[in-house]
Write a structure and sequence with these properties.
Blueprint lengths: L1 E6 L1 H4 L8 H16 L3 E6 L2 H8 L9 H24 L5 E6 L1 H5 L1 H16 L3 E6 L5 H6 L2 H11 L4 E6 L20 E2 L4 H5 L13 H13 L3 E6 L5 H6 L5 E4 L5
Parallel strand pairs: 1-2, 1-5, 2-4, 3-4, 5-7, 6-8
Antiparallel strand pairs: 7-8
């Protein structure tokens, strides 16, 4: 199977912005094992700004654009260093790809991106993709790697996109406020009722939230790609997703 895995800042880092070492090590171990099993994987990774916040010892996520971009520049180096070190331990080579919205919107640049991705996967490398936060002010404002992951998945012909977040999936209500909220196991259509279940942004270090995940699901489903929202606190969930069991929400792509 060809799949795209997107990991959010809340999964990669503690609330302090410092790297969650144990979790990232486990994540890289599981992804490496899935690659060893023959799956083709691309990783869309948030966390550059969040890790930059920790590396620069800032008290919170910056609000002004220059500081956001500075944090992204510092954090991206740290992020790729960690991925390179950990995946190399399992004999997997990582490749960094930083893109902006223009790289996808422009047909020629999109074609180059897709061709590069295809060749990297053929060569057995693990592409690690992020927004080019140091220069792309539009994307950095949106902070929407969920949508980026959906665009990557649909462009490279992935069968599944997995969004690892700090929640088990889509609930019938906000589980932090309503103890009777029920996890939705399968969603077959994005309608106003599903959109109404999406709230605002997630963690203080990240800028995503359920709303961006629902938007990503719509992109995937319309292109026939399945999408899963799962809790990234235990990377072993990836095994369960591949086996079709566990706690997560599956958004079923429209099959032709």
């Amino acid at each position: 199977m060809r799949l795209v895995i997107k990991v959010g800042t809340s999964t990669l880092a503690h609330s302090t912005g410092k790297l969650n070492i144990r979790r990232v090590e486990e994540l890289c171990k599981v992804i490496s094992d899935l690659k060893n099993a023959g799956h083709e994987i691309a990783l869309v990774s948030s966390g550059a700004i969040g890790m930059g916040v920790g590396k620069l010892n800032l008290s919170s996520r910056p609000q002004d654009m220059p500081t956001k971009q500075a944090a992204a520049a510092v954090g991206q180096c740290e992020l790729m260093y960690v991925y390179d070190k950990l995946f190399s331990g399992y004999n997997h080579t990582v490749a960094q790809i930083l893109i902006t919205g223009e790289d996808i919107e422009n047909s020629s640049r999109r074609s180059h991106f897709v061709n590069t991705m295809e060749r990297l996967i053929e060569l057995g490398a693990l592409p690690v993709i992020n927004e080019n936060d140091t220069v792309a002010t539009d994307e950095i404002s949106v902070g929407d790697n969920d949508t980026l992951a959906a665009i990557v998945a649909t462009n490279i012909g992935a069968e599944l996109l997995v969004l690892l977040s700090d929640i088990d999936g889509l609930y019938s209500a906000d589980p932090k406020k309503d103890c009777s909220a029920i996890l939705l196991n399968v969603v077959e259509k994005i309608d106003d009722n599903i959109r109404a279940l999406a709230g605002g942004a997630g963690s203080s270090l990240g800028t995503g939230g359920m709303a961006t995940k629902i938007s990503a699901a719509k992109i995937c489903m319309d292109s026939g790609v399945d999408m899963v929202i799962a809790n990234g606190s235990g990377p072993q969930i990836l095994y369960e997703i591949m086996q079709g069991r566990g706690r997560f929400t599956l958004f079923k792509g429209k099959k032709q």
